[in-house]
Specification:
alpha/beta; 410 residues; 12 strands; eight-stranded mixed beta sheet; Spore Coat Polysaccharide Biosynthesis Protein SpsA, Chain A; two-stranded antiparallel ribbon; transferase; 48% helix
Length: 410
């Protein structure tokens, strides 16, 4: 059972009573009469044969309150798209697959590229961006949730708790972030969040002084969680990062656009496990190494927009301070693991901290070399101002693919 602590910045909705899923779903069905709900699933084709997605789809077949499920499919040829249509065809809800590698959606992407409005980098951010555009174009829902397709411990309660705060007709939340303990297979997960993000936020406060923005980010129990929900009208002005800074970027955007009393976080799972990224100490362009660099750059950019002045000397100070703060956290995590009977390898944890410390300096140098880098994709409001019928084009292309390649009617 969780505690009931509130940090005072962002409301935390705990799992205090383990309420039966049937009760939650009964309420959500009622809410759906006033605030229809969608789910976005960004997926690689390879995940269709992975250990998680089959169970996720099976769990979703039992969900009674969703108006629409939108699946973003990356890295799929025509035969694989046809297979995906069959694979997801068991879903009883209205659902559509964005075949991002198909000729129709590539034509739309090329049209936006010609206007310098298309996402420049392949990946989850681009997939999510197009899926959210489709949600706007379909007009079926007023609230939308998003979660990954590699959650091996998935239960449909996760979705119910995630979307409940933005679907409740008397709640005022525009955005909700999911959180959970990354504890599975008797070990602690979430290394980038535990060993990079949290120590870095505390470090930035020490080195740069108090920042309301840093305090805000530090109020989230799992800032890198890939699960969040929002009112659909939030999408219009949302800037989404194309790199591993996506989750931090979304939190920054919500702080920019909304008062914190419109934001919340919710406990969505007792046990959570998904695909683990490799540390990739020898390859700065992959795995947790790239993730830590992208996240650090996102934080440095945001602080710079608030007037913080960075230099090589300041980044050296940040690196040294971070290293000390992170080592102190390792002591705390070790003791937490011991009292809970979890396995904990301090050597591997310290190796990760050493890599992240190096990457903070690299991120700082990259920021100084290119401080005007624009990692965000444009908002859909901006795209619509340039191409007024772009959402209609996107919706029509997805429908045409669905009809041509034999998707279920509905």
């Amino acid at each position: 059972m969780a505690d009931f602590h509130q940090n005072g910045l962002v409301t935390t909705l705990h799992n205090l009573s383990h309420r039966p899923i049937e009760d939650l779903e009964r309420e959500l069905v009622s809410f759906s009469q006033q605030r229809a709900m969608s789910l976005v699933l960004p997926s690689l084709y390879s995940e269709l044969s992975g250990p998680a997605l089959g169970n996720i789809v099976q769990e979703l077949t039992k969900v009674p309150y969703l108006e629409e499920i939108v699946i973003g499919l990356d890295r799929a040829d025509e035969a694989e798209y046809r297979h995906a249509l069959e694979y997801f065809g068991k879903l009883p809800q209205h659902h559509r697959i964005l075949w991002n590698d198909g000729p129709r959606l590539r034509a739309i992407d090329q049209q936006l590229q010609d206007l310098e409005l298309a996402p420049m980098e392949m990946g989850k951010g681009r997939n999510v961006w197009y899926c959210l555009g489709y949600v706007l174009g379909s007009g079926r829902s007023k609230s939308v949730a998003l979660h990954d397709c590699d959650i091996v411990t998935y239960q449909r309660e996760l979705l119910a708790r995630l979307i409940y705060p933005v679907a409740h007709p008397t709640f005022s939340y525009a955005f909700c972030k999911g959180y959970y303990a990354r504890v599975a297979t008797n070990t602690m997960g979430g290394r980038v969040s535990r060993l990079c993000v949290t120590p870095l936020l505390r470090t930035l406060t020490k080195v740069c002084g108090y920042s309301e923005f840093i305090d805000y980010l530090d109020s989230f129990r799992y800032p890198l969680a890939g699960e969040f929900s929002m009112r659909v009208d939030v999408i219009d002005d949302l800037l989404i990062s194309s790199d591993w800074g996506l989750e931090i970027g979304v939190l920054a955007e919500m702080k920019r656009n909304y008062a914190t009393n419109r934001l919340c976080q919710v406990d969505i799972a007792d046990v959570y496990d998904h695909k683990h990224q490799q540390l990739s100490a020898d390859d700065a362009s992959a795995g947790l190494s790239k993730m830590s660099t992208d996240i650090a750059k996102a934080l440095f950019r945001k602080l710079a927009t608030k007037g913080e002045v960075f230099s090589t000397e300041k980044f050296r100070t940040i690196k040294a301070t971070y290293y000390r703060v992170a080592l102190d956290f390792i002591e705390s995590y070790h003791n937490d693991a011991v009292i809970n009977g979890l396995e904990y390898d301090r050597h591997l944890e310290e190796q990760a901290v050493e890599l992240f410390a190096q990457n903070l300096m690299a991120a700082g140098e990259q920021f100084l070399e290119n401080p005007m880098e624009k990692p965000f994709m444009p908002s859909w409001n901006r795209v619509r101002s340039a191409v007024p019928d772009i959402l209609e084009q996107l919706h029509a292309a997805v429908e045409a693919d669905h009809r041509e390649f034999g998707g279920n009617v509905g």
